[in-house]
Amino acid sequence: MLRIINSTARRMQRFGFLKYLVASTSSQRPSSAITIGRALLNAVSHKFPSNLNPNIKKYCDLVFSEQHYSALRSQIQKAEFQQSSGQIELELQDIYLSQDILPSHRGRIISEKEKDIYVFPTLAVSLGLLTPETFILTSRGRLFSHTVLPNEIKAFNRLSDINPLVISPRQTMVLLFSFLEADGDLINMLYPAILNKRDEFTDYDIGDIIGEQLADFLIQLEKSVSSIKDKNEIYKLKKTAVKIKSWNNKKYKGLGIRDEWATLRLEPFVDMGLLKKTDKFAYKYAFSENGRGFFSYFPPGQTIDTFLKDKFISASSQLFGIQVSPATDPVQILTSLKEANRILANNIGYSDITDTALLASMNLLHSSNALLEIRDSILVLKDAQKKNPHDIHFNIDRWGNLKFISFRRL
Question: Do residues 265 and 37 make contact, with C-beta atoms less than 8 angstroms apart?
């Protein structure tokens, strides 16, 4: 299975917007990209009065420099000359994006045309949070939704002291796992190649590297694939690689396919703490020390599936600076797995086994500093099922792999 996200949009840079998207969708009722996208845009573009503090002033000066923002700039000039602290009307997203608590001030979403709205749910679909075409919340979407606090969702509807664009450690684990599942082939090439960089690098530097790596990867991959679906996907990606390479060594423009592909692999990693920015407005990046620790678990030649099952939790503990001890108590482990199943189960009691293991491991890591990898969780489940076949049931997918888990007695 090819793990490369081919649908990119520079306008979806902040992972925090995904919180509203999953909260706006159903586990049962189909929706449309236009409906979901419009709801998100309407929520974050609602205007509120805001004091013209230094952070807001700097944000507006740098983000709203184009001619068509002249009315807003006039508001700012009037507010500056008021004796008391002047106020201006700003979109909700701009108030949050300007705050120092965020690691990047870029990523406001706009829709110049009505048809552009369909782009906003694209990343959620690519990460497996929503189903394609019907936009129903998936098991992974329910898992991510479980990490989002009610007050974070309320903060999309009214101005709040809580900034909903901040990504918590638990949210980071779900989103990072999902990103690596979806884009692992490219990330596994890209990040080891730039890990030795000590200086800052730009989005177009990374875009140039992606163009070269993607083209070489597809040439090698094409020799080993046999299915029509994979061949068609490779054909599309090869055309994309040619377009990206056509931008090589050109000056930064802030638009175009090279910068879109690079931004998607950089800005979300700032949200999750693997990268940092000395200038929160610039598209310039460096590794955080904990981010280097996370990627140190990417040995050469290892498949992304192996990493996710065997080392993701260990790498995450490095990312968050958590000193861990292996989880050894089978009762504690099984209790955590049962609780995860209870939270994620469908209406007949089954939950996705990977998502169940991931949630259980997350809970053990953050509540007890206990280390339990995904594969070890599944081994515990298999062992428990052998001992209690009537209490624990598995379902398999069409290839015979374990897919779902159900506890008959909780």
Answer: no
Q: 276 near 328, Cβ under 8 Å?
A: no
- 89 Cβ contact list (under 8 Å, min separation 6): 47, 48, 49, 50, 75
Cβ–Cβ < 8 Å for 316, 177: no
Reported as a single tens digit per residue, the pLDDT across 332-377 is 999 999 999 999 999 899 999 999 999 999 999 999 999 999 999 9
Helices 330-344 and 353-368 pack at an angle, to 10 degrees, of 120
55-86 pLDDT per residue, tens: 999 999 999 988 778 888 888 888 877 655 67
Residue among 193, 195, 194, 245 at smallest CA distance from 219: 245
Q: Which stretch of DSSP H or E encloses residue 315?
A: helix 312-320
- The whole-angstrom distance between residue 328's C-alpha and the CA centroid of its chain comes to 31
User: How far from the centroid of its chain's Cα atoms is residue 347's Cα?
Assistant: 27
Alpha-carbon span 29 to 36, nearest angstrom:
12
Question: What residue has token string 């990977």?
Answer: 354
The list of the chain residues with pLDDT below 70 reads 8-12, 82-85, 112-115, 251-255, 409-410
Structure tokens at 54: 């230094």
According to the CATH classification, is domain 323-407 in 3.40.1350? no
Give me 66's structure tokens. 């184009």
pLDDT for 253: 60
Rg (CA), the chain: 22
Question: What H or E segment, with its residue span, contains residue 287?
Answer: strand 284-287
Mapping DSSP onto H, E and C, the string for 137-161 reads ECHHHHHHHHHCCHHHHHCCCCCCC
Cβ neighbours, 10 Å, residue 29: 10
20-55 pLDDT, tens digit per residue, is 999 999 888 999 989 999 999 999 999 999 988 899
How far apart are alpha carbons 358 and 375 in whole angstroms? 10
Q: State the Cα angle at 1 between 126 and 400, rounded to 5°.
A: 110
Q: What is the pLDDT of residue 187?
A: 94
In contact, 209 and 190? CB cutoff 8 Å: yes
* Tokens coding 38: 């419009």
Domain boundaries, the chain: 17-154, 169-298, 323-407
pTM above 0.90, yes or no: yes
